[in-house]
Amino acid sequence: MGLPEPGTYGDPQRNGLRAKDLYDAVVEHLFYSIGRRVPGADRHDLYMALSYAVRDRLMTRYLAGLDAVGTSPSRMVAYLSAEFLIGPQLGNNLLMLGIQQEAAEALKPFGINDIDDILHVETEPGLGNGGLGRLAACFLESLASLEIPATGYGIRYEFGIFDQLIRDGWQVEITDKWLKAGWPWEIPHPDQACFVGFGGHTESHRDQHGAYRVRWIPAEHAIGIPHDVPVLGYRVNTCNRLRLWRAEANDSFDFQTFNRGDYSGAVEKKVGSETLSKVLYPNDGTDAGRRLRLKQQHFFVSCSLQDMIRGLDARGIPVQEFPVHWAIQLNDTHPSIAVAELMRLLLDDKHLEWEAAWAITTACLSYTNHTLLPEALETWGLDLFGSLLPRHLELIFEINRRFLQQVRLRHPGNEGLLQRVSIIDETGGKAVRMAHLATIASHHVNGVAALHSELVKQELFPEFAALWPNKFTNVTNGVTPRRWLALAHPALDGLLGEVIGPDWPVRMEDVRQLEAFQHDAAFLERWSDCKRSGKQRLAAYILRQNALAIDPDSLFDVQVKRIHEYKRQHLNALQVIALYLRIKNGDTHGLVPRTVIFAGKAAPGYAMAKLIIRFINGIAEVVNADPTVNQLLRVVFLADYNVKLSERVYPAADLSEQISTAGLEASGTGNMKFMMNGALTIGTLDGANVEIREEVGDSNFFLFGHTAEGIARLHRDGYRPWERIAAMPLLQEVLGLIGQGHFSRGDRDLFQPLLNNLSGPDPFCVVADFEDYLRAQQTVASTWADRRRWSRMTLLNTARSAYFSSDRAIAEYAEGIWEVKPVPVAMRSLIEA
């Protein structure tokens, strides 16, 4: 038996997509991969066996893609991100392959009549925290669906951010052991390991040609082991990869130390090195936590860049052609150490001259900024940075020296400008400004919504924008309609397929055809039935998890996102108390039954955010137990919000709460997922809300609050929230009820920090927007009362959501920033399978 011909990929029967092929594959993997006979297999065994069967089909496409790129070399995208919140993989890959029904049929002989029973077994990968990581996952999926060769690079965290429990109303963090039952979607490649150094010192010398060279001698090393996760495009053969790095020690066991009886010391290096990939975002409130964060970032960036260069070497491509073959996107500041590390590799390992190395670096790097909040723009103290990465600090000093010299030539004598643009912050304790480093070295810097990108140029980096006006651009975020509508909302997926066609998930512009049905009463009824199916599904989940019955016919008013003061969950909570007071006072005219749903995690060290969670749960405890109130109002906090749970939430939402302080949310992506699923938005003119409102129309968006300019003017004029509270009797009554301990079991002190924050500085202008928010909520209630009008508005939200597909965002990156093109993949042996 000979080897398969080039261009063929495995046995067509083994990789077939029929129900019988999948059944045979499940039986085979149960026996050979799981070690189970069919009669003894439980649901987890069946999940693992089906996942391996699906992975087989992904790998044939992945290997074909490698051949396609190898035979027709093209520029590839390297997406560097500290997070990839990819979510459960089995259901998504069945959707990508178009074999959901076939998989369901294949499971029936095993006694599984509902494939959801198997899909729910999957543990979600703990590889991200929130919007940043979910965006990266959407982008990887769209890259594959658009057939653009790409690799996502990140860290294989052994433990995710944390699992969230709610105990006595408080958030409790427990370890996210997502790997404990095995994960069938990764393929380790220990033969492609990379070495990464830390600490030590540098030595300079002249080489044989008299050129000045520097040698870095690290004090310690870690090894990065790549684990590849296949990322398949929708109904195409392109299967890219997410390459995640796991840390191992260079010398994991010290026999001499062990023989002396120091058993802990014998594995000390192993434990220290492997901590690099233990947990996502260690607490940076301590020196040790900050040190670990910087080590993590350098670890995965160094491994990734070494991997790219090694790939060129293996193909005999000179490193000078690096930008021809790789476009590197820095997803926020976390991977911005790539600037110094790529320079180090080119200068010290490849022995290029400075000008050539800098030309390569600036030709391949581009940077996405995700925040205007100063605390989220990473800086590292010089002592910490120099102790961990001495060679990189030398290079940053030299990059900064050359850059500042250019600025001096253009703006002689302007020392203030030099201080503002310098990579080194000279105020207080000296520090490296990573956003400045990324901005200086990147050929493009983009924001993630039209408003955000303007604020980046006007407020965050105005000096850089003046120096390089053509460097700054905008690419508004997007989300994949495959996971967030087709997979999450099967009833609506079926209706869209019927009236628009089966290709709608990759032709989102066709969804605009729904507008033709906006006055069709029969169609609107079917539309509402799809929404109600999602609401019933979420209501059943809440009954199981929270032991709370909610009415699927009530208005589902939903705010799900990371808990943060600027996202203003406490503004929403205050309006819930205002509703509670109205009902208690008998003022129910114009009210509609409403279920207010919150979900999100607070950073473990963020005391105010954790207090807001306790506040919401305190309100829920009172409201839900009061029979005079709970027929019109219920409050729910969903614990441990993640991708699996969000797939239930988005299809069920009627109202999307996007109420952040204007000018502080870069974009948001939850707002887009809600819109795609037909939820109406109540929101400020912040982030992508601006563009959502433009797309859907003013009359289909509930606008309130100060604009970004208005917020800036408030602070500039001396904002005094206590004076505003004195002029608002209802808000006084709300705050008074909180202060009396009504929502804290009589404890008058529990929420005092929150009250002090509102009546004192109120940095996020909750008080300033309170009355207008209540006005908008009254408009929501009156609109909901006209259910046909509401259904028409929800239909128009979905119909006009095409712009917020990640396919559109990736197409803009591909053309305007990366300059990459699709590379279609063909597989002869699978065409007929």
Automatic annotation (TrEMBL):
NCBIfam families per the UniProt record, alphabetical: P_ylase (TIGR02093)
Pfam families attached to this UniProt entry: Phosphorylase (PF00343)
PANTHER family to which the protein is assigned, alphabetical: GLYCOGEN PHOSPHORYLASE, GLYCOGEN PHOSPHORYLASE, LIVER FORM
Annotated protein name in UniProt: Alpha-1,4 glucan phosphorylase
Signal peptide range: none
Catalytic activities: [(1->4)-alpha-D-glucosyl](n) + phosphate = [(1->4)-alpha-D-glucosyl](n-1) + alpha-D-glucose 1-phosphate
Keywords from the UniProt entry: Carbohydrate metabolism, Glycosyltransferase, Pyridoxal phosphate, Transferase
SUPFAM superfamilies: UDP-Glycosyltransferase/glycogen phosphorylase
Molecular-function GO terms, alphabetical: 1,4-alpha-oligoglucan phosphorylase activity
Cofactor: pyridoxal 5'-phosphate
Keyword Glycosyltransferase: yes
Enzyme Commission number: 2.4.1.1
Top EC group: transferase
Transmembrane spans: none
Species per Swiss-Prot/TrEMBL record: Cyanobium gracile UHCC 0281
Described function: Allosteric enzyme that catalyzes the rate-limiting step in glycogen catabolism, the phosphorolytic cleavage of glycogen to produce glucose-1-phosphate, and plays a central role in maintaining cellular and organismal glucose homeostasis.
